[in-house]
Amino acid sequence: MDITIIGTGYVGLVTGACLAETGNNVTCIDVDSDRVNKLLSGSIPFYEPGLEAIVERNLASKRLVFTDSYEDISQTNIFFICVGTPDKGDGSPDLKNLHAVMDSLASNINGKSFIFTKSTVPLGTNKMIQSFFDDRLGKGIVYVSSNPEFLKEGSAVSDFQKPDRIILGSSNEEARKLATDIYAPFNWSKNRTMHMSIESAELTKYASNSFLATKISFMNEMALVCENSGANIHEVRLGLGSDPRIGDSFLYAGLGYGGSCFPKDVNALIDMQKAFNLEPGIIERTKQVNDRQVRFFFEKIMSILGTNLEGKRIAIWGLSFKPNSDDVRESVALKLISLLAPEVNSLNLYDPIANLHAKESLSDTSNLKFYDEKYAAIEGADALVICTEWKEFWDLDVLKLDLMHNKLVFDGRNILDKSKMKDLGVEYYGIGT
Ligand code: NAD
């Protein structure tokens, strides 16, 4: 099939590459010409395990092409919209990229077409897109379906190729059949496609992310109870998660959730509730608990470091919002850095792959030094703070901690063993441990 993917970010590029891999002819369009030029030379604009090889292979076979011109898409009639829908700043999603796509498609669509919206968009958006095309091009030309994406950065390729669900909200039989055919290679062992109404599909995406965010905030709330009571969040997690009705995933206390999706999707759901004149309950508390979590950890660090912070140097390990990604959007590590930077002499920062993106995001902060090696970052430091649970941080070489001014470790992801640290002479602080 001939397919056009609109937007070559995490969702678009992975979707395009994986659909080319299953034999489709895929054109990926992006308005960012620099990005398109890099992609044409086989360079991937972000870190995503396994993606480069698939892009290279399909570029070489010419099943995957990149363009920045909407004129190049007039031969296709299947479109997947994968542009960003960031927070506008007031909690509501900014749909300006989506509107730009709609305008561009309206001028370039050639005959009957099917649009699948992968971007996360608020309730009613797909019907709005449908009305737009019905008004501009006449009814029966464009059919719009909601097809929210559930891949996770860091494992996006395998998530796309082995999805736990494919959600399709459509009222058009032909669109449903088309999607069934496109996704058939990913449904081989078992059909994971769930057909539902457009609104249900739109809400399923927000409900999923908000539920996961709620699990995190719940555990962070329990961690604070642990800190005040002598209970240990690791033990509580194991006891809690062994109940199959609860399940054992996503029950980790820490610095809270970040990234380009959870914060904005939680905000958007609250915004939608308000638009329906519904009083936000659990979701609003989820956000509040998350917002206070970084500050709570910052205050803990401050209280241990004492008042005389002049000349203090703190090492930070982990800058990306999660391991296996160089994405620093809404990273809680960067939030913690913004709180710490004005208080101390300097911060030594290290991340296995996110240094570059973090440097761009923190360009206004002056007392930061970036390191390419984790132990170089702790030399002379008064404390080490772990912000992202990269696998390479799990095994701490305690001898190398001698490089530090103080063997003081704040573990914002609870990955180190507190009693082991104590035995090794490390002053250790986790969250709820
Ligand atoms: P991204 O910011 O990484 O990429 C979006 C791309 O769209 C950019 O390259 C941008 O230049 C391009 N773009 C913007 N306007 C355009 C236009 N008019 N025409 C063509 N291209 C245009 O975004 P992302 O992280 O891939 O997310 C895309 C959508 O998918 C969002 O709605 C997001 O919430 C959702 N989503 C993201 C993830 C994730 O893990 N990143 C997972 C599931 C769903």
In short:
This protein is α/β, with parallel strands linked by helices.
Protein traits:
14 strands; single chain; binds nicotinamide-adenine-dinucleotide; 6-stranded parallel β-sheet; 14% strand; Rossmann fold
What does this structure look like?
The structure is a single chain. This protein has about 425 residues and is of the alpha/beta class. The protein folds into 2 domains: about 1-195, 3-Layer(aba) Sandwich (Rossmann fold); about 200-433, Rossmann fold. It contains 15 helices and 14 strands. The chain has helices spanning about 10-20, 35-40, 50-60, 95-110, 125-135, 155-160, 175-185, 200-225, 235-240, 260-275, 280-305, 330-340, 355-360, 375-380, 420-425, and strands at about 1-5, 25-30, 65, 80, 115, 140-145, 165-170, 195, 315, 345-350, 370, 385, 410, 425-430. The strands form 3 sheets. A 6-stranded parallel sheet has the order 3-2-1-4-5-6, with helices on both faces. The chain has a 6-stranded parallel sheet with strand order 11-10-9-12-13-14. It has a two-stranded parallel ribbon with strand order 7-8. Helix 8 (about 200-225) crosses helix 10 (about 260-275), helix 8 runs parallel beside helix 11 (about 280-305) and helix 11 crosses helix 12. The N and C termini lie far apart (about 55 Å). The mean pLDDT is about 95. Bound molecules: nicotinamide-adenine-dinucleotide. The site of nicotinamide-adenine-dinucleotide has 27 residues, from helix 1 and helix 4.
